[in-house]
Design goal:
Structural class: alpha/beta
Strand order of the largest sheet: 3-4-6-5
Order of helices and strands: EEEHEEEHHHEEEEHHHHHHHHH
Number of strands: 10
Shape: globular
Helix content: 40-55%
Number of domains: 2
Largest sheet: 4 strands, mixed
Oligomer: single chain
Length: 412
């Protein structure tokens, strides 16, 4: 297995937005190659492991308020669906233009297929994405009655609209799509959440894990890497293009930020403790998510040091706490970045690959140990010992320790 994933240049061509199109610099879609021979993906699009059905006025499979199943896929053929998008004469889908309904179908298929391919690469094996009674994963791009939600369930993923705005379908938001694919991925790698007292912790971990699946996937777009480094000058400890999930959706009050990877929340924070009491898994997941993001940034800065793009002293001083408050650190990073932007880009791509391999191995270990914050953090340490001879152990322990997450190996 090669170290980093690369999109197959001979694959089927699609267009998608790696970040929401209302984010500055992302108003045009980017070309992506899906790992399938041109002509092998049929109308829908539909392939061997995925298919899109643009259901008409569909009722969600699960209750948007409770999450309970009202009915299950596959979507019956006798029920109405819009015409499927078809490939062009060369077998590609990059001629499907944005801002029409068919674009949601094509972009959704390409996004899901890309995330699957990226993470199977780092896992080192192919996964079975369907269910026992349904060989392929069903993708529903537009479900108006789902509201401002997206759901991932047994054998399907379906999407509503950001702010309930028909002009902002979640199916075209790579962050959201990758997050929902992340839930499917974690379920297959770790297993289903236990129906006992550990269920809340596991589901909280899976919310953070799904966001990490999205973070790694988006860092495989060269354009995203270029933009975030141009924005930050290599100082990733900040609110930036990749430290924010679901950026700047227009609402009644203008633009608002999404969830953040970059923050100071700990398990002892009042808001996080309150989230545990009321069963809010998204807020409770934030300390784990923040710690994992810190690990990625420290791996990135380690690559910069080994490439002699920054000094070891600058990397040591570039802690999460000081990064925002010390403008001198930003100036030093900017000065070094100007000398070799391409080197910074290569270092970030390598760091994302290292981070993905650590996560993939840690999650595989979690199938046996369980997936609490502490055990997954301990599995990251064990994965680093196996993959990198413990190079990142101090960074992992430091990042999770700051969040008051004990790196505790499970009992035999």
């Amino acid at each position: 297995m090669t170290r980093k994933f690369e999109f197959p240049r001979e694959g089927t061509r699609f267009l998608l937005y790696p970040k929401p199109r209302i984010v500055a610099g992302f108003d045009k879609p980017r070309l992506v190659h899906v790992d399938a021979r041109p002509g092998s993906i049929g109308p829908g699009p539909s392939g061997r492991r995925l298919y899109v059905v643009d259901a008409w006025n569909k009722r969600p499979y699960r209750d948007p308020d409770t999450g309970a199943y009202d009915w299950r896929p596959p979507y019956p053929r006798r029920m109405r669906a819009l015409d499927p998008v078809r490939p062009n004469a060369e077998g590609h889908f990059d001629s499907v233009v944005p801002r029409i309904r068919e674009f949601s179908q094509a972009a959704l298929y390409a996004s899901v297929a890309s995330v699957m391919a990226i993470w199977e690469h780092y896992l080192g094996r192919r996964l079975r994405w369907g269910t026992r009674g349904q060989r392929r994963l069903e993708l529903i791009p537009r479900v108006k009655k789902l509201g401002a939600n997206a759901w991932s369930g047994d054998g399907y993923i379906e999407f509503g609209f950001a702010g309930r705005d028909p002009a902002q379908p979640y199916a075209e938001d790579f962050d959201v799509v990758a997050h929902e694919v992340g839930h499917q991925f974690l379920k297959r790698v770790i297993g289903k959440a236990p129906a006992d007292r550990r269920e809340f912790m596991r589901k909280s971990h899976d919310e953070a894990g799904a966001d990490l699946v999205s973070l790694v996937a988006v860092l495989h777009f060269d354009y995203v890497v270029e933009r975030v480094l141009a924005e930050t000058r290599g100082k990733l400890y900040s609110v930036n293009l990749v430290s924010e999930i679901g950026q700047y959706r227009r609402g009644r009050s203008g633009r608002r930020p999404g969830r953040l990877y970059f923050h100071d929340k700990t398990l002892r924070a009042p808001a996080v403790r309150a989230a545990r009491r009321r069963g809010d898994k998204h807020t409770y997941a934030q300390p784990f998510l923040g710690a994992a993001f810190d690990v990625l940034v420290e791996i990135f800065e380690g690559h910069l040091v080994r490439r002699r793009l920054i000094s070891a002293e600058l990397a040591r001083n570039s802690t999460h706490a000081r990064a925002e408050r010390d403008p001198a650190i930003h100036r030093k990073f900017a000065a070094r970045y100007r000398l070799n932007p391409d080197g910074f880009g290569e270092a970030l791509v390598e760091a994302a690959a290292d981070f993905a391999r650590l996560l993939a191995l840690a999650w595989q270990k979690s199938r046996r140990t369980g997936a609490t914050f502490s055990t997954v953090a301990a599995n990251l340490v064990a994965a680093d010992r196996r993959l990198h001879r413990g190079r990142h152990q101090q960074a992992i322990r430091r990042a999770f320790g700051r969040r008051r997450i004990v790196v505790r190996a499970p009992r035999p």
